[in-house]
Amino acid sequence: MFTAYNLLGGFLFSVIGIGAWRYGKSLDRWKPLSIGLALMIYPYFTPWAWLTWTVGTILCVTLWFHHDA
């Protein structure tokens, strides 16, 4: 469960999640706030590296298209 790629993906997407969460909180927007929270929490529940990277990429793409709504 603790492979280098899994830890790297969890760290990377958690840092992106912290930024998205702070952005959403400062502008009082619920979509980036909730996507940022999901980016910070989901790596704890994904046992495989490919799943961590896939879910993280999907959430980052979702954040890219819904950051201003």
TrEMBL record:
Assigned keywords, A-Z: Membrane, Transmembrane, Transmembrane helix
Transmembrane segments: 7-24, 44-65
Name listed for the protein in its UniProt record: Amino acid transport protein
Organism encoding this protein: Luteolibacter flavescens
